[in-house]
Amino acid sequence: MENVIEIKSLKKVYRDFWNRPKVVAVDGLDLSVRRGEIFGILGPNGSGKTTTLKLLLGLIFPSSGSIKIMGVSPENMECKKNIGYMPEESYLYGFLNADEILDFYGKLNAMPEKLRKKRIDEVLDLVGLTEARKRRVEDYSKGMSRRIGLAQVLLKDPELVLLDEPTIGLDPIGSREIKDIIKGLKDRGKTVLLSSHLLAEVQTICDRIAILYRGKLVEEGRVEDLLTVSNETEIITSGLKTGEVEKLKELVNKLGGNLISVGHPKETLESLFVKLIREKSGKDS
Amino acid sequence: MNSVIVTIAKNTFVEAFRKRIFQVIFIFSILIILSTQFFTFFTFGEEVKILKDIGMAGITFFSLIISLVIGSSCIQTDMEKKTIYTVLSYPVSRKEYIYGRAAGVFCYIIFAVFILSMVFYIALSVKTYFIGQKFGEDARFSFVTFSHNIELLKGVWLIIIRCFIIVSIALLSSMFFQQTFTIIVCFLAYILGHLTGFIANMAASTGKIFGYLMTGFYYIFPNLEFFNVSDYISVGKHISASYVLLVTVYGIIYSLMLVLITAKMFEKKDM
Ligand SMILES: Nc1ncnc2c1ncn2[C@@H]1O[C@H](COP(=O)(O)OP(=O)(O)OP(=O)(O)O)[C@@H](O)[C@H]1O
Ligand SMILES: [Mg+2]
Known about the structure:
The structure holds 2 protein chains of 2 kinds. Chain A contains 10 helices and 9 strands. Chain A has helices at about 50-55, 75-80, 100-110, 115-125, 140-155, 170-185, 200-205, 225, 240-255, 270-285; strands spanning about 5-15, 20-35, 40, 65-70, 85, 160-165, 190-195, 210-215, 215-220. Chain A has a 6-stranded mixed sheet, sandwiched between helices. In chain A, a hairpin with a 5-residue loop joins strand 1 and strand 2 (about 20-35). In chain A, helix 3 (about 100-110) crosses helix 4 (about 115-125) and helix 4 (about 115-125) crosses helix 5. The mean pLDDT of chain A is about 85. The radius of gyration of chain B is 21 Å and the shape is globular. At the A-B interface, helix 2, strand 5, helix 3 and helix 5 of A face helix 1 and helix 5 of B.
């Protein structure tokens, strides 16, 4: 499969005012992201996730190593048409309202006016900000700011989407909605690279992940492969009585296995919360 | 015209227009100019002269404050608040960004000085109207003839050009320093810029090396004394059109040079 992003032995050293090295934020990183996948960069605070994304955007320049995005360097203007970026917090002009902000970015992307107006309506609807579109962004709540940040990416509709901590500061409903939108991007053939330190979130949406620690790659691979404990088997059944579970245990023993635990599968707290609130809001409306 | 530059320039203008601090400065300066209505002196000549002095000084002072604030903040806060990240993720080159910012700032200064001048001019007209009532129409017309107005216009124009220079110094300085330091840099540049005559004298009168150094200073620093014509205006002296043109060309070339250097610095900057 074709690689959308190719990073080779990338290194970034932040320097101070006098050009003395201060921090090695990314250290010999090799990474490639394939077309059409959702790729997650994981890592604790300060591990170099944001730095990597900024390097990919050409906001900062590598100290050494190389980056290719769809075959060209991030400094190339052509490649910026194909990249959308949602920053860590939604760093957007607070003195504009949602309409004006999207209009501004649409113009920067050289969208013709008619298309721009139509698409703005669509994406505002998609992120659920239609009612707040005339309010200034500085008065938005955290979640709303994130949504407008995402709306800007959707308006641009690029091939590659870079998301820095897309769901941070969102309530479970909001974060589920954002995740659905991200999955929607994948369904439309887009490539998504996101950074996060929320493991549960990454687990549910990413195809492949890389784990960074102090700027170095610690682990990389498919989420399924990384999370599957291949020498254990989980048995989930329904309609069994207590006595019959004992029989199952005997059977497993007879086959030479060892039943570690039998229990009722739990849904995650997140999905329970989402289900309850969704039910409630469904009744109210 | 490049549409990206226009878009960024417009946005810069809207940003300044909506900023609380500029609204406050505006209201304050308008109040100062209007307050001159309440000065009364015995001779009508003095009254009009004082009104012109205060008016021009007010426009100079407040346009300078506006230039300092907008020049030191417009790129700096974009980097500090990281709004620039999103902008540069679009097909906007760093040069275009700087040109757009600079163009927007220049437009805003023209707008601000225009509004202040209008208020000043209205205040002046009201005052001279009453002078006319008190001392007769002849007295009035000796101060508000067409040529007087043209001189005022020239003075205001030169204030704008001087603000362009100050703002471009601020933009360049904000490539290296935080906002407060940039304001200090501009302030120093402003003072030195008005001392260029003094520096030239020093260059001529001191020894070789120091002399060369001073000559260098003389050419590097903007000669802001060129733009200082309000003394002439208040006493009703004539400023020649060729002088205005020459100084305008000087000021615009100086500012554009600084903007070009700023763009060059910005190209390789880590955000
Ligand atoms: N502009 C900068 N100047 C100097 N050091 C920096 C700069 N930006 C980041 N760093 C340092 O580089 C390292 C990596 O930072 P980075 O922001 O990439 O981490 P991160 O993985 O995004 O963390 P978080 O999860 O907290 O967002 C940190 O040690 C940080 O202090
Ligand atoms: Mg980060």
